[in-house]
Amino acid sequence: MANIKDVARYANVSPTTVSHVLNGRGRVAPETRDRVLEVAQRLGYTASAHAQQLVTRRSRIIAIQMPDLDTNGRGTALVPKSESEYFLELINGAAAAATDAKYALIVVSPGVDASSMRSFGVDGMIIVDPKGSEQFLQSSFADQYPVVTTGEPVVAAARPCFVVDNDHDAAAREIFDHFAAQGRSQPALIVDTTSRSYIRDIQHAYGEWCNDNNVRPAVVAVAEASPTEMGKALASLRTGPSPADAIYTSSDECAIALLDAAREARVSIPDELALASAVDSSILRVTNPPVTGVFLHPRDIGARAVESLTDLIARKDPDCQLPPLESTRTMIPTRVVVRASTATEESR
C-alpha cells in the first residue's frame, strides 16, 4: 500500500508538501498541488483521518445546537415541537454540507454547556435561533472557536458571530401587501411568545406596514398554539368596529390551530378571514383550505451555516490565504407560496 513518501517520490516533492496539499495547508503552487493530487489518486493513497487530525490539530467535528423553545425552562428538547419540520430540514441541509466538507456533524440539545463541547474537541459551533445568552456566545468559547448562528441573537451577544438568516421583514411586508391586493383592509398578527429574532422582525414589519397604510395594528401573543388559545385570540380580533379580515401567524402550528378555532367559531376561511403563516410546511398544503405560507428554504440555511463555519475554521489557520470577509451576514431569500386560504371569493 502506498504511503506519503511514495507520493512525494513520484511527484518529486517533499513529504511535507504532500501533507500540506492533502490537508489543505500551506502555500503550494497550483500546478504542484494538481500533480500531488494526481499521483496520490494514481497510487491509491488516502491520508488517514487520525493523521490529518494530528497534523491540522482539528477534530473535523462541528456541532449544531437546537434552540430552547421549552416554556418550562428545562432546555432539554432536542428538536422543538413547533415548526419541527423546519428544524429537521435545517439539520438535513447542514448534515449534507458537513459530509461534503468531510466534517462530522453532531446535534446537541439547548442544555449542553461549553465545557462539554471542549471535551468533544469540536472545531466550531452552529447555534439555531439564538437568544444571545447561550454560553457559546458569552464565554471564552467564542474567542477560541468559530460560531455561526441561524437567525440573529435576540439580545446582543458578548462575542460577534457570523449570521445566516432570512429577510423576515421583507417576507412579512409581501404577505401584508398580498392581503391588501385581495381586498383585505384590516390585517392582524398572531405571534407565539418564544424569544426569537424572526418574530421581532415580523412585528417590526407589521407595525411599519400599518403606519404606511393607515391601518390600526392588532397584535395578539399566545402562550401556546392550541385551538383554545387561538379561539380566544380569534374572538378578540374579530370583535369591535373593525374586525380583522386577515391574520398572519408566526408559525405553521399557530396557523393550523387557528383553522380549527375558525371552524369552531363558524368563521369562513377565506371568505370572511384570510390566513397566512410565516413558516411554510408540508402540512399547510393539505389542510382545508390549504394555507398560504412563507417558504424559508431551511435546507439552504443549514447548508450555508456549515459552509460559513468551515470557512471560518479555515481562516484560523496561520497559513490561510483567503481574502478578508466582506460581511458577517448571509441572507437566504424567502418565497411566498399563495394558497386558497388567502383567496377572495371573487378571485377563486
Automatic annotation (TrEMBL):
Domain of life: Bacteria
PROSITE patterns referenced in this protein's UniProt entry, alphabetically: HTH_LACI_1 (PS00356), HTH_LACI_2 (PS50932)
GO MF annotation list: DNA-binding transcription factor activity; transcription cis-regulatory region binding
Pfam family, one: Peripla_BP_3
Keywords: DNA-binding, Transcription, Transcription regulation
Stretches assigned to the HTH lacI-type domain: 2-56
Keyword Methyltransferase: no
InterPro entries in alphabetical order: HTH_LacI, LacI/GalR-like_sensor, Lambda_DNA-bd_dom_sf, Peripla_BP_I
Protein name: LacI family DNA-binding transcriptional regulator
Source organism: Mycolicibacterium porcinum
